[in-house]
Design brief:
- It is a single chain.
- The chain is α/β, with parallel strands linked by helices and 320 residues long.
- The protein has two domains: 214 residues, Rossmann fold, CATH 3.40.50; 89 residues, Rossmann fold, CATH 3.40.50.1100.
- 48% of the residues lie in helices and 16% in strands.
- The strands form two sheets. The chain has a six-stranded mixed sheet, with helices on both faces. The chain has a four-stranded parallel sheet with strand order 5-4-3-6, sandwiched between helices.
- α9 links the parallel β7 and β8.
- α3 packs across α5 and α9 packs parallel to α11.
- The longest helix is centred in the middle third of the chain and has 17 residues.
- It is globular and about 55 Å long.
């Protein structure tokens, strides 16, 4: 299966959304370079608007709405960063937003999403949310899917363009995977600009839908999301994100919450960046892949929206 978007689409997305987003810093880390024995750089998407990369895809999708579509509104399903991104972009563009959120969503995500002006509807889980949003779509609302949308994936891919521009000598990029939208966009961008550069994926155990899909050769429905890395908790990969990962990504490493939490602590202590587990897991993967990595490695720190309550809870009890 060919991707539904191209490098040209990502380049067009970058020009379209540039006035609305931050170009996040990419910095070399001495501490991580010493730890891994090669040049290690951090793409700090945790400093993006709303605290994660998701606004890139949301802006690329919603800037393309017709006046008629804007007059009705958009609907999304998310218990994390996508919810905040859609709500934020909706406020900036004057578009009404409805977000279906699992009832277990951490309070910081709920408060931020509501603060940006979205109407929140609580549901049992993401599967129920996707079922219920169909009724809105039937009435003319536009669905902004968190990863299975060519405009969203192209928007996320702009992160990859910036990485290549800032580190043209790039040999490896390690990126986390939820449903696969970010790594799909990043991989198409990086491989389009630097064909010899390699992209590696990482998931946490209990939020590992892509690894399960790769093993089965088709998308696999997660029975439940048990990882503390909730922002990686997609119920299943899509046919397209699976196909892109199969084609462009070297491998997907699955790490534990405990490993990701230890990496989070190291990043906070040594770089002063407080990431989510969905971002700190890239360091765990880098440690495991060390022997295979080249001289210039970028860890994509996709977000930093871990609430204080969740952080304290995670440090007070053993992670599985």
């Amino acid at each position: 299966m060919e991707p539904s978007f191209s490098l040209a689409d990502i380049e067009a997305a970058h020009a379209r959304i540039a006035p609305h987003i931050k170009r996040t810093p990419l910095v070399r880390s001495d501490a991580l370079s010493d730890r891994l024995g090669r040049n290690v750089y951090l793409k700090a998407e945790l400093f993006q608007k709303t605290g994660a990369f998701k606004v890139r895809g949301a802006f690329n999708k919603m800037l393309g709405l017709t006046p008629e579509q804007r007059a009705v509104g958009v609907v999304a399903v998310s218990g994390g960063n996508h919810a905040q991104a859609v709500a934020y972009v909706g406020r900036k563009l004057g578009v009404k937003t409805v977000v279906f959120m699992p009832h277990t969503t951490p309070r910081n995500y709920v408060d931020a999403t509501r603060g940006y002006g979205a109407e929140i509807v609580f549901v049992r889980d993401a599967n129920e949310g996707f079922e219920r949003q169909d009724g809105y779509v039937a009435q003319g609302w536009v669905s902004v899917h968190p990863f299975t949308d060519s405009l969203v994936m192209a928007g996320q891919g702009t992160t990859g363009l910036e990485i290549v521009e800032d580190v043209p000598q790039l040999t490896d990029c390690i990126t986390s995977i939820g449903g696969g939208g970010l790594i799909s966009g990043v991989a198409v961008a990086i491989k389009g600009r630097l064909p010899k550069a390699r992209v590696w994926g990482v998931e946490t155990l209990g939020a590992d839908c892509m690894s399960r899909a790769l093993a089965a050769g088709k998308p696999v429905q997660m029975p439940a999301i048990t990882s503390m890395a909730r922002t990686l908790g997609a119920p299943a990969a899509s046919e397209e994100t699976l196909a892109i990962v199969q084609r462009y990504v070297e491998s997907v490493t699955v790490v534990t919450d405990a490993e990701a939490l230890a990496a989070l602590a190291f990043l906070l202590e040594r770089t002063k960046m407080l990431t989510e587990l969905a971002a700190s897991c890239t360091l765990v993967a880098a440690d495991r892949l060390k022997a295979q990595l080249g001289e210039h490695v970028v860890l994509l720190l996709c977000g930093g929206n871990m609430g204080l309550a969740d952080l304290c809870q995670a440090t007070l009890k053993p992670a599985s």
